[in-house]
Design a protein that fits this description.
By secondary structure, this protein is α+β, with helices and mostly antiparallel strands. It has 24 helices and 20 strands. The strands form four sheets. Strands 4, 5, 6, 7, 11, 12 and 13 form a seven-stranded antiparallel β-sheet that branches. The chain has a six-stranded antiparallel β-sheet with strand order 2-3-1-9-8-10. A five-stranded parallel β-sheet has the order 16-15-14-17-18, sandwiched between helices.
């Protein structure tokens, strides 16, 4: 976990401007900060030292200073890559993973990306050819934002760094903001800031001869073509390989243990390889029924000799951290599990942890979300429309939007269906269930689900490690036949069948509980006044605050359940207050 910034090919930019950029996100890397002006490129970095704390300062260069890099993430197979490069004569001055990047560039140029196992976003600058490579990991776990700026390109790990540049005009991307009310997040590559985009996962941009390429894909999800079943032994081998490389860190680590199947399986495999004192884990505990699996987390911890501590969350926590959560998320959404990740990361920070393992990853690739299980149970497997699926996932209906939106903003919310159908159009040859997985992998994962751990963890200098998101494990899941992913009303069936090797059947196949907050209940009672105040905030004339208060009262009385609509609106109002006061 680090923060990187930079400007390439722009006029009128100084090192001081990039220092301002990196200053905005220095919490991502509180150990060291550096800026280097290299002609047409100025690179900035804030480092969280996880490996070789003494010798990993960035921007980092090769031996003769001809190739430079700024990098956020982890190259998990850096030891193997370093030994291969040493055998070819390359000299290393550190033990950290960053240094393999500058030498791999010399050896392979863009083809280096095929060799990397890890999560990463980086910019390499070659002073000899005045060439840049800006690249992002396969699944989009690490963020990479970029925007045209003064004839060149500005990039950063977080958008607030780009917004800090002088003369960068901060404007709302109205169409992207309108999509939030259907998708509950802003689908990438667009963002809710005009002019700023995300570099798509598994792609790179090349700067050469004074010009930038369009994003070039170097990897694709293996979701089409021949299906390949796998054995539980193959899954264990892939997970163990991922954990072995992800255990390479020189700081204190632990585990987020939800009590769900995913984190429980990671706990079982991690416990076999843990080479430090007893594993410390943190689990969520919420009083409301259906929102906490702490009792299951405690059971797993007891069986595996893990030291589990409870993080109790109450309604009073929400107003206290809401503005900080919005500032870190950087875009509006209605996903209150951002609050959970914020509080978990804060607790890990208080415990002195830097690296925390998680069970993130299987839901998107194996149709594991509860709404998918419910939807598929009512539909024939090979014969439902993407239109009907969009109606399921849309967070507001046309009628809702007509109530909530002003006449001026309403048109920006009305083409979300066309946007969704365009997202899934490249996967039209797949059967509908696989199209759903394709949507979640290409948009929901990098646009929302991976954002929570990165952005909330970054604020507290916590680096998440998710063995399921090792691309070799993800590819194993992606290639499975649909009947292994979803079977007899159960998503993630292959993983759950494997989990029975560690835990009893009833534990594994119990109904899924989503890790989120009972915000719908809380805004009826202890958070009602807070919700009224937030809904009254100015919004540039986009919404009808009077009608929003009517909806809140309808929700409070039980006349209608407006949880989805209200939680998205609450976070949007707070976002507008934070970034466009």
């Amino acid at each position: 976990m680090c923060g990187m910034t930079g400007v390439v090919g722009a006029s009128g930019v100084s090192a001081a401007h990039v220092e301002q950029m990196i200053e905005c996100i220095k919490y991502r890397g509180p150990d060291e900060m550096g800026v280097k002006a290299l002609g047409a490129a100025i690179l900035g970095h804030a480092r969280l030292a996880v490996v070789d704390r003494e010798n990993g300062m960035q921007p980092m260069c090769n031996a003769d200073g001809s190739v430079w890099v700024v990098f956020n993430g982890e190259i998990y197979n850096f030891i193997e890559l370093r030994e291969q490069l040493k055998a070819k004569g390359y000299k290393f001055k550190s033990r950290c993973d960053t240094e393999v990047l500058v030498h791999l560039w010399d050896e392979k140029r863009e083809r280096m990306l095929d060799d990397l196992v890890g999560v990463f976003a980086f910019c390499i600058w070659d002073t000899r050819t005045q060439t840049a490579l800006l690249a992002r990991d396969r699944q989009g776990i690490k963020p990479f934002f970029y925007a045209p700026y003064q004839g060149g390109l500005a990039f950063a790990s977080e958008m607030k760094a780009i917004l800090a540049l002088p003369n960068f005009e901060k404007k709302v991307n109205e169409a992207a903001l309108g999509h939030v009310f259907s998708f509950n997040y802003c689908p990438p590559p667009e963002t809710c800031f005009e002019g700023i985009k995300q570099l798509p996962p598994g792609s790179y941009i090349r700067y050469q001869n004074g010009a930038f390429s369009q994003p070039v894909a170097y990897w694709q999800w293996p979701i089409s073509g021949e299906r390949q079943d796998a054995t539980h032994a193959q899954l264990e081998a892939a997970l163990d390989a991922a954990i072995t490389t992800q255990m390479r860190f020189d700081v204190d680590g632990g585990l987020f243990l939800s009590g769900g199947v995913d984190s429980s399986v990671i706990a079982a495999r991690l416990a076999r390889q843990w080479n430090r004192p007893q594993i410390d884990a943190i689990g969520l505990r919420i009083e409301e029924k259906g929102f906490s699996e702490y009792q299951y987390a405690q059971r797993v911890a007891d069986e595996l000799n893990i030291n589990l501590s409870a993080l109790d969350i109450t309604p009073q926590d929400i107003p206290a951290i809401a503005q900080s959560v919005v500032r870190q998320a950087e875009q509006p959404h209605g996903d209150f599990s951002f609050f959970l990740f914020y509080l978990l990361s804060r607790r890990a920070h208080e415990m002195g942890k830097i690296v925390m393992f998680t069970g993130d990853g299987p839901d998107e690739v194996m149709l594991g979300f509860r709404h998918n299980e419910q939807f598929f149970s009512e539909m024939p497997r090979t014969n439902f429309s993407m239109h009907s699926y969009f109606d399921l996932i849309s967070y507001s209906s046309d009628k809702d939007r007509q109530r909530m939106m002003s006449p001026g903003f309403l048109p920006h919310t009305q083409n979300a269906l066309a946007c969704f159908l365009e997202m899934v159009r490249p996967f039209a040859d797949l059967e509908p269930m696989e199209q759903v997985a394709a949507y979640e992998l290409h948009y929901l994962l990098p646009g929302n689900n991976a954002v929570k751990g990165d952005r909330m963890g970054a604020f507290w200098s916590i680096e998440g490690r998710a063995p399921f998101l090792d691309h070799r494990v993800s590819e194993l899941f992606a290639r499975l036949p649909i009947t292994s992913k979803y079977h007899q009303g159960t998503g993630k069936h292959f993983l759950k069948a494997a989990a029975v090797n560690y835990f009893d059947h009833d534990f594994v196949f119990r109904p899924k509980t989503m890790p989120t907050l009972p915000i719908g209940e809380w805004i009826k009672g202890p958070l009602y006044s807070w919700a009224r105040d937030v809904l009254a905030l100015p919004d540039g004339g986009r919404f009808d605050s009077k009608e929003l208060h009517v909806m809140l009262d309808e929700h409070r009385s039980g006349l209608h359940n407006h949880t989805r609509q209200l939680r998205t609106m609450l976070m949007t109002k707070l976002w507008l207050q934070e970034f466009f006061p």
